[in-house]
Request: fold
Amino acid sequence: MTATPQIEIFEPKVPHGPAAEPRPGSGAAARRLGVLPMPSLEWNEQVARETAHLYERVKTVVPPVEWPFFAPYVKAINTLKEQRNAVILAHNYQTPEIYNCVADFVGDSLQLAREATKTKAGIIVQAGVHFMAETSKLLNPDKVVLIPDLKAGCSLAASITGADVRLLRERYPGVPIVTYVNTSADVKAESDICCTSSNAVQVVESFGTDRVICIPDEFLARWVATQTKVKIIAWKGHCEVHERFTAAELRDYRVANPGVQILAHPECPPDVIGEADFTGSTSALIKFVKDKQPKKVVMVTECSMADNVAAEAPNTEFIRPCNLCPYMKRITLPKILDSLVYLREEVEIDPAIAERARRAVERMVQLKN
Ligand code: SF4
Reply:
């Protein structure tokens, strides 16, 4: 069903400066649980033997010459995870050696949030960006949640503040506020419910109202507006990775690769989505490739995702427009290892904010699929 999209867009009156860096963790976990000795990172026959099954998973995307650098980290991280009773939650945009060789759970923001509610581990290492680690902490207030690099931020999350949301609420009293999970805890705390790109339409329609405020991604909101009769009030925030794609470049791919299937993420601009054969969240794009096994695809989303899906979809050729997320790429194997050895950086959220933000995330997680 496609309704005529009804949408109204807002942006901050005064543009925000660069996002404030999240506060460093207190180091409380390191004081309580202790720092471990740094494991050996030597490449030798034993390491090669013990990691050979993991290299099998990535051999189509990681050249053999790079494996001797990665393998000692992979072995050390997997050993330390057991020692620490820790799990690694990795987003689909993480590099293949993280996604395939050390992660315990992989997925999009919604899948990772759901996993975060189920884990029995005492420590969660978030291989993703800061708002994802905050979401894990919101759902696991008593666990230690670590982000291997505090500068792993997000342009979308930096586009809006809690004060902006309060202004929207004043302007539209009684209109429900749906907030994309790609936001700070402060913004979530001012919202009625969160959504991800996989459930945004369902969440918007869950209120049964004729208008909904859907923030902060303008393009996601525009896409939602094409899928529902609900009028959408949006915010002019953008993902700096997806906004760079253009419709012209997709047309060029189609001309150069007859029969190619173009799959786009809803954070892309509307004219890019207009060129796509299928639009969906990262998990929906992965499902499309696995179910339909197209001969050739272009994945119009973050670069590493094509690598990660390619490792599991040998029958599909991937044409790779490569827009990297500079924030996701701050997470590396050496930083994950440091995180497990030194228990840093610990994510902390002001309890007053956390309680309200948690409610918004839990409402989303509890929605039926
Ligand atoms: S890909 Fe875009 S939305 Fe995702 S973390 Fe990077 S900047 Fe943020």
User: Anything to note?
Assistant: The chain has a mean pLDDT of 92.
